[in-house]
Amino acid sequence: MAPPLTDDQDALAPSRRERPSRLIDVAVALLLLVADAVIVVVAVVLLVAVGLGTAHSPYSPSTARSPDTPALAWLVIWGVPAVAAAGAVVHARLRMPVTAVVQGLFTLACTFLAIAWTRMLLS
Q1: Which end of the chain is more exposed for a tag (fewer CB within 10 A), N or C?
Q2: What is the full DSSP assignment across the chain?
């Protein structure tokens, strides 16, 4: 059995629910903001490139789309918003409000892009 903590030891022991410093929260939020921005820009460029590549033009021969979209494509399209939402929840539970807001906005952007990709693939 461990001896009881004295006042000095209790003051030095970190609390389990202690939140990270605001500086760490902002630094992590900025890093994730840059990474999220790169992901969103690449997704938009791919969406536009694939959308333009499959568009029917009166001057080009008709290109038929394949009705079968691989399951891996659907997993990626809808998996990214799900992972982003999980990240937002984790950062909120870690009591990092700035990072949680950044990840929440990224989740909204990913969901919007997933809807756009789904509409494009099903049209």
Answers
A1: N
A2: -PPPPPHHHHHHSPPTTPPPPHHHHHHHHHHHHHHHHHHHHHHHHHHHHHHHHT---TTS---PPPS---HHHHHHHHHHHHHHHHHHHHHHHTT-HHHHHHHHHHHHHHHHHHHHHHHHHH-
